[in-house]
Design brief:
This protein is α+β, with helices and mostly antiparallel strands. The chain contains two helices and four strands; from the N terminus they run αβββαβ. Strands 1-2-3-4 form a four-stranded antiparallel beta sheet. InterPro entries: N_methyl_site (IPR012902), Pilin-like (IPR045584), T2SS_protein-GspG_C (IPR013545).
Length: 163
């Protein structure tokens, strides 16, 4: 019987071990990079959902009371508590000083809610705009028809809040 052994060749065990080590390194690298992107996309999805809920609540408030909540031409931001409001989350007087408790249990706020990432709302007598800055999802804000390509904007006048 003849054996075909080449001392310069790799054994199946050596190839398997090297492949396993490379897969572990690849998995570690992906797990270190991908969570930041997926967390940003997740926060952006929540922002879009919150803004849609706030849009619905503002329209229902307008139908019920004939006006939009808050003072006209005043920019409200979710990271600032207006004077007289107990907290930014209070449904009776949150970051927009109006009682929206019939429309949601607490005011939506940005997942980060700092100077860069927060919700904004402004209205005049006939129109309004709500906006939220996106972290990862750049396609939606640039296609929403508003004047700020980095913010997701909803409302019936997307030019009220300047970028």
């Amino acid at each position: 019987m003849r054996k075909f052994l080449n001392p310069k060749a790799f054994t199946l065990l050596e190839i398997t071990i090297v492949t396993a080590i490379l897969l572990v390194l690849l998995g570690t690298t992906i797990s270190l990079i991908a969570p930041s992107n997926s967390k940003g996309r997740s926060r952006d999805a929540r922002r879009m959902s919150d803004i849609s809920n706030l849009d619905r609540a503002l329209n229902e408030y307008k139908m019920d009371f004939g006006v939009y909540p808050g003072e006209e031409n005043t920019l409200y931001t979710s990271n600032v508590v207006p004077s007289g409001s107990p907290s930014i989350y209070s449904p009776t007087s949150g970051w927009v000083p109006a009682d929206l408790s019939d429309y949601f249990p607490k005011y939506p706020t940005d997942p980060v809610n700092d100077a860069t990432y927060h919700y904004e709302y402004v209205h005049n007598s006939v129109s309004y705009e709500i906006s939220a800055r996106a972290e990862q999802l750049v396609q939606e804000p640039s296609n929403d028809g508003g004047n700020d390509p980095s913010s997701y904007e909803l409302g019936n006048n997307l030019l009220l809040i300047s970028p």
